[in-house]
Specification:
The chain is about 40% helix and about 15% strand. It is built from 14 helices and 14 strands. The structure holds pyridoxal-5'-phosphate. The site of pyridoxal-5'-phosphate has 12 residues, from α3.
Length: about 350
């Protein structure tokens, strides 16, 4: 049976050109700052993002953790979205390792209302953990891959400036946001102090994320990366496909967005499934299966048995992610299977 894997854009495999680049990469010891391929990638990333410096790390989770630590002091409080990846999916590193107190703000369509952020800032007094950082996520995963627009970020920036806070962006999929709005990625990055983005998702690299910010911030981040055990030696083998990703893999994200649209519109027509098409802005589709009368877990298992792989993200919601390797033909095939399986489920229950 053929598999159509829509669980995540992390399942993308490196291109032939990436494998070739790995084979031919010029290498050195990056802990000494001597891997020319890593240095080239970091310079490229900093320039693309309009910041002074950048640093390659093994994963998005480590990128976020290092950034939390480099932006704060232990015992500070940090404003996070209640549905943010940092809060929900990073094993509590924000508290366990970074020693920070999360102050949670609810997102609407992935966006935290600036007035609610302002209300959540802890006053400076004897009792409070001082708030020093706001974190946003773009695109916002649990909100369905929605784009936080440059104008929205600017509104949060104003609050940050008024209260002398730093603003950090978990930009794991920031290039999806830039491609969706057809604007330069700097439109998003210029309003934040620092950010991270992932090479290992839609950009198709096997490994890696990049932290970007001021020279001073990255110097601090480098020490923390070393402390966490993330100092890598001939990391050029990771950086080489990253260079190709930044040169050649960004524009094609548009294809993933078209496929997500196609998928979402098809799902919305199936009895028992609900999709909020307003949230389908990039490569993620969230779908409510409540109307079928089965749990999201059961739905995932039923589709898995038919070769369509997806993830459940709550008891009633499932997530589909499009990526390189999924063509429009695969979407049509997946939709036919899902329609058939949904019909079977409805018949069993009537
Ligand atoms: C995937 C993801 C991360 C973490 O990246 P890993 O490389 O899987 O650790 C962080 N934030 C968001 C929004 C993500 O989607």
């Amino acid at each position: 049976m053929r598999r159509i894997d829509l669980r995540s854009d992390t399942v993308t495999l490196p291109t032939e050109e990436m494998l070739e680049a790995i084979r031919n990469a010029e290498l050195g010891d990056d802990v000494y700052g001597e891997d020319p391929t890593v240095n080239q990638l970091e310079e490229m990333a900093a320039e693309k993002m309009g910041k002074e410096a950048a640093m390659l790390v093994p994963s998005g989770t480590m990128a976020n953790l290092i950034s939390l630590m480099a932006n704060t002091r232990r015992g500070d409080s940090v404003i996070l979205g209640v549905d943010s990846h940092i809060y929900r999916y990073e094993v509590g590193g924000v508290s366990v390792i970074a020693d920070l107190l999360p102050i949670l703000v609810k997102e609407k369509m992935g966006f935290m209302d600036p007035a609610e952020i302002e209300a959540a800032i802890q006053p400076v007094d004897l009792y409070r953990a001082p708030t020093t950082l706001i974190c946003i996520e773009n695109t916002h995963n649990r909100a369905g891959g929605v784009v936080i627009t440059p104008q929205q970020i600017e509104q949060i920036r104003r609050v940050a400036d008024e209260h002398n806070l730093r603003l950090y962006m978990d930009g794991a999929r920031i290039f999806n946001a830039a491609v969706a709005l057809k604007v330069d990625v700097k439109e998003f990055t210029r309003h934040v102090d620092n950010l991270m983005f992932c090479l290992s998702k839609g950009l198709s690299c096997p490994i890696g994320s990049i932290v970007v910010g001021s020279r001073e911030f990255i110097d601090r981040a480098r020490k923390i990366r070393k402390m966490l055990g993330g100092g890598m030696r001939q990391a050029g083998i990771i950086a080489a496909p990253g260079i190709i990703a930044l040169e050649k893999m960004i524009d094609r994200l548009e294809e993933d967005h078209r496929n997500a649209r196609l998928l979402a519109e098809g799902l919305a027509k199936i009895d028992g499934l609900k999709v909020d098409l307003r949230t389908v802005q990039t490569n993620i589709v969230m779908c409510d299966v409540d109307g079928l009368g089965v749990s999201a877990e059961t739905f995932v298992e039923r589709l898995k048995a038919r070769g369509v792989l997806i993830n459940s993200i709550s008891s009633s919601r499932v997530r589909f992610v499009t990526h390189r390797g999924i063509e429009s033909g695969d979407i049509k095939e997946a939709l036919a299977i899902i329609e058939d399986e949904a019909r079977k489920i409805r018949n069993e229950r009537s």
